[in-house]
């Protein structure tokens, strides 16, 4: 029997964990798979091991593992595959298929624009924009954000679009925020490229508050759990399915 295991990132903040699980619950009816479970990569329960065990206990013989992550960095490339390697030996009769994360997608950039419009503020072509990523030491993340920036520029026609990272990559969010603020832009949009409310969201709010004139800065909501994301998830799961075409990883060869 087939199962899908959704691996969410995890957060120290309960609201972030609840947002993730609520979205998975809303997504389950749209997926034509009999067994579906959710777990967390870190900082919360159930763990990946517990999530896999639940799938097996419910009768799963094939598990499609979907890393509910924005981009393919260390967690998707190393941490989760290590967990799956352990699970493969624990459950040798179970086939594991590993889906891609959400990845760079035009629909994700559309959500950024939607979050801007939700503020009720006019979006000026002369505005400055700071897209904020979690950050990673993986160089692919920098390439991915360059593509996200290009898509955003194309959609909005805003030219001054910048990227800042909250950890493990440069330039840092704080450095870029301060640099752009010193330029006194007519508008400064700060767009969190994060799925959920969490510690990093609080960090952004704090840094903006510390500036002398934060009223000129418009901080949008996180990407959140949008219906467009559900469509991408469905596509990624079908890609990894043995009947749906591309197989990203299956039992590591």
From TrEMBL:
Gene3D superfamilies: 3.40.50.1400. Keywords: Lyase, Metal-binding. It holds the Pfam family CbiX. Signal peptide: none annotated. This is Sirohydrochlorin chelatase. It comes from Bacillus lumedeiriae. The lineage of its organism: Bacteria, Bacillati, Bacillota, Bacilli, Bacillales.
């Amino acid at each position: 029997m087939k199962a899908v295991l959704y691996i969410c990132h995890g957060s120290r903040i309960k609201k972030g964990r609840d947002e993730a699980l609520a979205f998975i619950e809303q997504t389950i009816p749209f997926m034509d798979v009999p067994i579906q479970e959710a777990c967390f990569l870190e900082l919360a329960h159930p763990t990946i091991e517990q999530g896999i065990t639940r799938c097996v206990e419910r009768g799963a013989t094939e598990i499609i593992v979907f890393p509910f992550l924005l981009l393919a960095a260390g967690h998707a490339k190393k941490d989760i595959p290590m967990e799956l390697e352990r699970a493969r030996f624990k459950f040798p009769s179970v086939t594991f298929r590993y889906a891609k994360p959400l990845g760079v997608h035009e629909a994700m950039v559309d959500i950024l624009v939607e979050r801007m419009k939700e503020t009720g503020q006019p979006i000026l072509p002369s505005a400055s924009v700071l897209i904020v990523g979690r950050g990673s030491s993986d160089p692919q993340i920098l390439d991915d954000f360059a593509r996200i920036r290009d898509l955003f520029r194309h959609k909005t026609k805003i030219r001054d679009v910048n990227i800042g990272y909250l950890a493990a990559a440069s330039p840092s969010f704080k450095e870029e925020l301060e640099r752009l603020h010193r330029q006194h832009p007519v508008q400064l949009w700060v767009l969190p490229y994060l799925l959920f409310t969490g510690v990093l969201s609080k960090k952004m709010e704090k840094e903006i508050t510390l500036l002398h004139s934060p009223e000129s800065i418009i901080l949008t909501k996180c990407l959140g759990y949008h219906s467009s994301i559900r469509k991408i998830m469905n596509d990624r799961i079908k890609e990894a399915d043995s009947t749906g075409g591309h197989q990203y990883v299956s039992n590591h060869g």
